[in-house]
Amino acid sequence: MSSRSGTQSKQNKPKPKQQQAAQQARPKPSAAESQAVAAQDAARKEARLQRQAQARAEAERRQRTQKMRTYSIIGVAVVAVVAIATFFIMKEANKPGQSVPIMLERNHLTNATDAHAAYTTDPPTSGPHTQAVPQFKVYTEPIAKELQVHGLEDGGVIVNYKPDLDKPTVDKLASLVGVYNGTPGKENVVMSPYPGLSDPIVLTTWGRIDRLATFDEVRVRRFIDEYVNIDHHEGTEGQRLP
What we know:
Shape: rod-shaped
Distance between the termini: 120 Å
Number of strands: 7
Structural class: alpha/beta
Strand content: 5-15%
Order of helices and strands: HHHEEEHEHEEEH
Largest sheet: 5 strands, mixed
């Protein structure tokens, strides 16, 4: 039986010529059907192009957004830097006295008479100084520049005045300095006559100087209050002393 069925199966298989004849017998699509297929193909192609265009547009939009975000961050950072710089510049400009560069040489001297680099201001505002520290009080005699400078490094303010300054003004300065000497946290103030002084009164602290043609209590107090008892040793620069 199996042999016979196998034989029948082979006989029932269409021959290649028969297949071709069957294909040729199929009806050709009409013009309308061909147009419909072409329209579908065109629609699919158009849809694909639109999706690609949308993807490109979305990518470009993301890039623009990222650039705008980056530029915004940079802009905010620049504004912040400028604002901070302006704040510190204005703050420095509004401080009493004139800022002067700190000398690189700030070594200790065995004696005030030892040779050393010339001071860049007169009276000095930084530089080499004695190991000894001046007493924070009112002096009636000049003290060595080298001793003054160590007082400045230790957070002192020096009130220098011309030796021939009138007594009433000297008394006013002495009374004011005496008040500071008795005030904890503001006691590091020295007053002394200074031969050859350029102005009647000259206030000095580490890196600052203020020259006064006349006694001005508000101005003197402002200078002292701003700078007194601020340490200027390397490593503790700018710390307020107790």
